[in-house]
Design goal:
Number of domains: 2
Number of strands: 12
Order of helices and strands: EHEHEHEHHEHEHEHEHEHEHEHEHHH
Strand content: 15-25%
CATH class of the largest domain: Alpha Beta
Length: 365
């Protein structure tokens, strides 16, 4: 039986660890998962991963996410003892830092990214665009294993339950609810965080029967709250941070789930984890027109304007669209959402694909 070490530099208990646990359960292998506590320093995490990698003659190491605390150790292990490893990522490494921190910060990460992929035995992308990019950078083989969703947890609720959830949030039953789920971390460089697009759109709406539901918390919340005109405050609901098991309830309170991305070297490659959760919950999606919209959403949603989500033009165009949006149109797209989740994002679909790829890597000389 193959001995596989899974390292997760994103932190113990996070989405990456859950993904690794669910996917490796499909393997006929002896799997050890090593996750660093989120409170660990980068140095202590690097030492933990170094010790784990050196502890056994692993047949394969699988890194879920691309943090350098594990990645640099894998590069060294590949160079020194030809350790075979694969990497899984939902973001372009250098693209992330270029957009969020600037070109100077991104430059060394571009070198790291190229070495990490080129010395690997294969790459797993959360999107096909990331997989193609990794192969271009030197990964010898690749597969696409999208961010998956627990379809027993994220499911459409009956209409009566959805109405009751709205009532608990103080949302009128007759309102169209636009929502977003995410961390409200303010990007000074982008002048943006999730939820800003909803608040700015609200200020341009003519109709008065739309409520914005913002699920999550972070330092950006205070900035968002200051942007709401007093007369519109009752139409913006902040849930704050809620337990993971309550997120499906919040999603079921929505009629339209927003997913905004910048159309650049970061956003064009991504699919956020919200997408399968929205679709699994039967929620139609309004999404920036990145490749993932056309490949994964299409008839179950609407393309958002091709503008930066913090721009005035973006919010004005969104308001024009929402002013004319009917509940019949929402319901017609809602009917398609769950099917897409079942076909593209169920672990019963992605798990066997992961198994085939890992077995191929193990069998390759």
């Amino acid at each position: 039986m193959a001995r596989i070490l899974c390292v997760n530099p994103s932190g113990k208990g996070d989405l990456h660890e859950l993904r690794a646990q669910r996917l490796t359960a499909y393997l006929n292998a002896d799997v050890t998962i090593c996750s660093s506590p989120k409170s660990s320093s980068r140095r202590s995490a690097a030492k933990q991963f170094s010790d784990a990698i050196a502890s056994t003659a692993w047949d394969l190491v699988y890194q879920e996410s691309t943090g350098i605390s594990a990645g640099l150790n894998l590069i060294r292990a590949a160079l020194k003892k030809k350790q075979k490893y694969i990497v899984s990522s939902g973001d372009p490494i250098s693209g992330f830092f270029r957009v969020t921190r600037g070109p100077a910060v991104a430059a060394p990460f571009a070198v790291y990214e190229k070495w990490l992929y080129a010395l690997s035995a294969g790459f797993i992308g959360w999107t096909p665009y990331l997989t193609g990019r990794a192969i271009h950078l030197g990964a010898p083989r690749g597969a696409t294993i999208e961010g998956s969703v627990d379809l027993d947890l994220f499911r459409p609720f009956p209409s009566s339950e959805r109405t009751a959830i709205r009532a608990r949030y103080g949302i009128p039953a007759s309102h169209l609810v636009c929502g977003v789920v995410g961390s409200l971390r303010w990007s000074q460089r982008q002048r943006y965080c999730y939820g800003l697009e909803l608040i700015e759109t609200l200020t341009h709406l003519r109709r008065t029967d739309i409520t914005m539901l913002i699920v999550g918390d972070g330092e950006g919340r205070a900035i968002l709250e200051r942007r709401i005109p007093d007369k519109l405050r009752s139409r913006v609901i902040f849930t704050g941070s809620i337990p993971a098991e309550k997120v499906p309830e919040a999603i079921n309170a929505m009629d339209v789930g927003f997913i905004t991305q910048t159309l650049d070297s970061l956003g064009n490659y991504r699919l956020t984890t919200k997408l399968p959760e929205y679709l699994g919950s039967g929620l139609p999606v309004a999404m920036s027109p990145i490749p993932g919209y056309f490949d994964y959403v299409g008839p179950a949603g609407w393309p958002l304007p091709s503008k930066h989500p913090a721009s005035r033009e973006f919010s004005e165009l969104c308001a024009n669209w929402l002013d004319d949006l009917s509940i019949d149109e929402v319901d017609s797209r809602r009917a398609l959402a769950r099917t897409i989740a079942e076909e593209r994002f169920s672990y019963s679909v992605t798990g066997p694909r992961f198994k085939r790829f890992v077995e191929h890597v193990l069998d390759s000389s």
